[in-house]
């Protein structure tokens, strides 16, 4: 139950983070339009590609610190390696700044270096907190960063700045949040030994491809789209991606919470407990994605019109991306289990196949079908990732038990919810407030039905109530 409450606390922080991200995207879209949002999105895509090498290091920090031995040395060594690699990459970006500016469509290469440096520091601090099993606190620091970003970016927009101001606001929020995270450490960073640096490197040299898989899933479509479509369409695509990602928040919370626990169990080869925790996590992986997909089929155009009328043309993109994110959420749980078992070599093979497939599909399908091709490429890549990671994990500890009954009940509750939304939509006025009301009505209906249908979900929900340890709730 401690794990459940940690996941619930982390999930709460992710809801707050998602709300702040939604508001930031909403204000940028409403105040600056789809074109400016698209340009800023391309700039952030460049940032995430630059982070691929350092993301391997931050994954190694999380893993080695979570093992509970010489934590201070691994924190210090990991942060030092990240800063050194970031410095070298920053010099490279500045040397080719003109090419970066032309690709992004704005003169922001120097600002991207500042943003990149702040992001590397923030990621290292966040990984260190998670490795110390402070997952909920790491989530809280992320909320501080996202809320700070929202305030900073809305402020610069009101002052008359556009893309450059958005990048600066983003960098400032990351740096402030990183300083806050450092203050929450239980361990003091210290110099590592050569063996400890080698241990970080050994894990990181495999896990960097896992970070590349993650970045490609989130940013390959945007990266390729920048060569073929207008920035306004990229802005609409980004809104659809943001909404789809919101529905995987609980999956992310469960994955982040389970990783240090599975890592600890993996050192003792306690595979039966790993199976148990994975099954528990899979119950909640699609719990929001499934109703979100059904709801988007009915309310997608209305929901996107809240941003601006031009955004409603992304309704089909939204549905495809929600499905893709849902499938990938299951695959991510399996890959996280593989990494927790200290088998980054297996994850490396899976991620390598994903990277090659995702890159190929994006180039081919975007050239053939435009932005719809990008969404389809993302969905097909997600299917491949999930299949390969399932069999990869099966080869290590046996086939994971899939909670098919619980997932089936989630579909039943979602379909019943759809009937309610469809009926209400026929009498609801075509206003933004009515659209929000329909979303809320659908969510309440789904949760009530699922809790009523699924004893397992109901038991977990009741157990997460703080007073349930003292009072018997029925």
From TrEMBL:
Subcellular location field: Cell membrane
Principal location: membrane
InterPro entries tied to this protein: Poly_Biosynth_Transport
Pfam family for this entry, one: Polysacc_synt_3
Gene Ontology cellular component terms for the protein in this record: plasma membrane
Record's bilayer topology term: Multi-pass membrane protein
Record flagged with keyword DNA repair: no
Entry keyword set: Cell membrane, Membrane, Transmembrane, Transmembrane helix
Domain of life: Archaea
PANTHER family: POLYSACCHARIDE BIOSYNTHESIS PROTEIN (PTHR30250:SF28), PST FAMILY PREDICTED COLANIC ACID TRANSPORTER (PTHR30250)
This protein's name: Membrane protein involved in the export of O-antigen and teichoic acid
Organism: Halovivax ruber (strain DSM 18193 / JCM 13892 / XH-70)
């Amino acid at each position: 139950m401690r794990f459940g409450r940690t996941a619930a606390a982390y999930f709460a922080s992710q809801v707050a983070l998602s709300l702040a991200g939604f508001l930031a995207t909403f204000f940028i879209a409403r105040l600056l339009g789809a074109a400016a949002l698209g340009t800023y999105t391309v700039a952030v895509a460049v940032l995430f590609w630059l982070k691929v090498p350092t993301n391997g290091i931050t994954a190694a920090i999380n893993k080695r610190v979570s093992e509970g031995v010489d934590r201070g040395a691994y924190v210090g060594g990991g942060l030092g390696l990240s800063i050194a690699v970031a410095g070298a990459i920053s010099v490279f970006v500045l040397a080719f700044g003109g090419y970066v500016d032309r690709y992004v469509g704005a003169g922001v290469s120097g600002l991207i270096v500042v943003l990149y440096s702040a992001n590397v520091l923030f990621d290292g601090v966040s990984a260190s907190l998670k490795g110390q099993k402070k997952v909920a606190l790491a989530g809280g620091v992320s909320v501080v960063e996202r809320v700070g970003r929202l305030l900073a970016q809305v402020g610069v927009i009101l002052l008359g700045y556009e893309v450059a101001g958005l990048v600066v606001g983003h960098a400032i929020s990351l740096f402030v949040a990183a300083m806050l995270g450092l203050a929450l450490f239980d361990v003091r960073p210290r110099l590592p030994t050569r063996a400890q640096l080698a241990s970080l490197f050994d894990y990181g040299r495999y896990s960097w491809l896992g970070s590349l898989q993650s970045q490609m899933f989130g940013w390959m479509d945007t990266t390729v789209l920048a060569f073929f479509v207008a920035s306004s369409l990229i802005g609409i695509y980004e809104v659809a991606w943001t909404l789809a990602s919101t529905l995987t928040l609980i999956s992310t919370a469960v994955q982040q919470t389970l990783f240090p626990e599975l890592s600890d169990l993996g050192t003792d080869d306690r595979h039966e407990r790993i199976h148990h925790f994975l099954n528990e996590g899979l119950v909640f992986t699609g719990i929001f994605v499934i109703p979100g997909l059904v709801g988007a089929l009915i309310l997608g155009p209305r929901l996107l019109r809240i941003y601006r009328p031009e955004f409603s043309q992304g309704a089909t993109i939204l549905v495809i991306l929600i499905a893709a994110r849902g499938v990938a959420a299951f695959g991510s749980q399996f890959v996280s289990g593989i990494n927790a078992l200290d088998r980054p070599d297996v994850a490396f093979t899976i991620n390598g196949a994903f990277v090659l497939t995702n890159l190929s599909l994006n180039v081919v399908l975007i050239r053939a079908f435009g932005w719809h091709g990008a969404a389809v490429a993302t969905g097909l890549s997600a299917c491949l990732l999930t299949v390969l990671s399932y069999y990869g994990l099966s080869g290590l500890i046996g086939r994971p038990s899939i909670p098919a009954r619980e997932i089936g009940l989630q579909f039943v509750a979602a379909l019943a919810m759809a009937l309610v939304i469809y009926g209400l939509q026929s009498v609801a006025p075509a206003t933004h407030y009515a659209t929000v009301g329909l979303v809320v009505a659908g969510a309440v209906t789904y949760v009530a039905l699922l809790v009523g249908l699924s004893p397992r979900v109901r038991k977990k929900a009741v157990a997460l109530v703080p007073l349930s340890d003292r009072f018997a709730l029925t």
